[in-house]
Amino acid sequence: MINTAIGSLRRHALVCFKIGVEAAEPYLAVKRHMLTDGNRFGLILADGSQRYGTWPKVHVIAFGKAACAMVKAAREVIPVHLLACCIAVTNDDNVIALDGIELLAASHPLPDERGFKAAQICAEIAEAAQKDELVLVLISGGGSALLPYPVKTVSLQDKIAATDLLLASGASINQMNCVRKHLSQLKGGGLAKLAYPADVHALILSDVLGDDISAIASGPTVPDETTYADALSILESKNLADKIPANVKRHLEHGRDGQIAETPKSGDEVFAHASHTLIGSNALSVHAVMQATQANGYFMLLYSDHLRGEARDEAEKLVLFAKKTICSMGEPLAIIAGGETTVTLKGNGKGGRNQEMALAFAISAQHHNLPGNWVFLSGGTDGRDGPTEAAGGMVDSGTIQRMIAAGINPGELLDNNDSYVTLKTSHDLLMTGATGTNVADLQILLILP
Ligand SMILES: Nc1ncnc2c1ncn2[C@@H]1O[C@H](COP(=O)(O)OP(=O)(O)O)[C@@H](O)[C@H]1O
Ligand SMILES: O=C(O)[C@@H](CO)OP(=O)(O)O
Hints:
Elements: H1 4-22, H2 26-32, E1 34-36, E2 41-44, E3 50-52, E4 58-63, H3 67-77, E5 83-91, E6 102-106, H4 113-128, E7 134-139, H5 143-146, H6 156-168, H7 173-181, H8 190-195, E8 199-205, H9 228-237, H10 246-256, E9 274-280, H11 282-295, E10 299-307, H12 311-326, E11 333-339, H13 353-367, E12 373-380, E13 392-396, H14 399-405, H15 410-415, H16 419-425, E14 429-430, E15 441-448
Parallel strand pairs: 4-5, 4-7, 5-6, 7-8, 8-9, 10-11
Antiparallel strand pairs: 1-2, 2-3, 11-15, 12-13, 12-15, 13-14
The chain binds adenosine-5'-diphosphate and 2-phosphoglyceric acid.
EC number: 2.7.1.165
GO molecular function: ATP binding; glycerate 2-kinase activity; glycerate kinase activity
Keywords: ATP-binding, Kinase, Nucleotide-binding, Transferase
């Protein structure tokens, strides 16, 4: 039985989580950053200011896993007489047929010929845009693989081979994309360069923690501060310098030796008419959750907006932090975090990093006698945690009792990375279904001391 106090904490946690997810919902996020009076089209910039344009034509290029939802919003807002073209490139899983939009499917995470053709079309649109027209670029994660447009001396097959090696090497997304930018005509500011001197504005949904704009989909519209030498040293550090196709290595070496132009850097003329707005990210979702808990009457503390580390260790640290904090608080307390933990798999159970963190939190809270009624939610904003249909877990101060009453041993199951079955038994799985967005994970701890 869940008591009424815990019941209302659980309802609040769920509502706040959903508000965090909604803050990153691609369709809504794009709509929040556009305006029209029926005749003109304008943008709402990051600082909240409104800017109506005098663009006679708007060319819309959307790519990434959220391209369909983003382009749908743009199509609904931009007056038809201004819309020159509307193209969306996404991966097979995320294709949604839309009226009036040229929709192209391509492969992710390894590029394919379809992506190459889509990239050619996008490049042609950018090049054809005239001065004083607007190229509106809607960017979401996955864009790097979906729009492969290798430099002329590197074939698509060679680029696929290089991507494959990098994916398998454990390279970070920033490292991967440093190399991809230096093999591409579109990435690392390439799209802005092609569109110049037309105006370029990008609405960017970040799937990269820390929101390095030039890493998201390899930053096609923003300056790239990395170099050919950086790309080569990344390949060397991963022992790939002699495994990548010879054409790829030669291109990077020619670049390093100054025989090929660098990717455009900040201050470069090609960015004179280029701007962007970050419209969704883990940090923005964390912020939305923080506001929601305050609106619900909680005293709110931000624990971390870049949570990283082993899920179970982070759970214990959070328990200890909460215990220390409660001592000095008499009022309802919300402790908020966002980020992406990891799980080192040791067992053969089923689960995900959020479910593992929730289970570990419940065990650790009991071990450290976390007082009062509390609820802890850890969920993936994409609604899918690991290879399960749950988004994560939501545990409370009665969770361990429910598990024991059901005859299971939570500690043993955690050791087997079996968080899914364990939380299912205590009715603590967080089930939202796929959400259509992906800005990493959110953690919400609500406490009535
Ligand atoms: N039994 C398990 N328990 C906890 N985590 C797991 C388990 N099985 C897989 N995982 C984790 O799930 C992660 C993949 O989850 P997923 O939600 O698909 O990731 P992403 O959101 O990064 O695409 C892997 O990094 C792996 O560590
Ligand atoms: O497109 C990309 O470069 C990255 C980051 O935005 O996403 P993914 O990990 O899906 O390749």
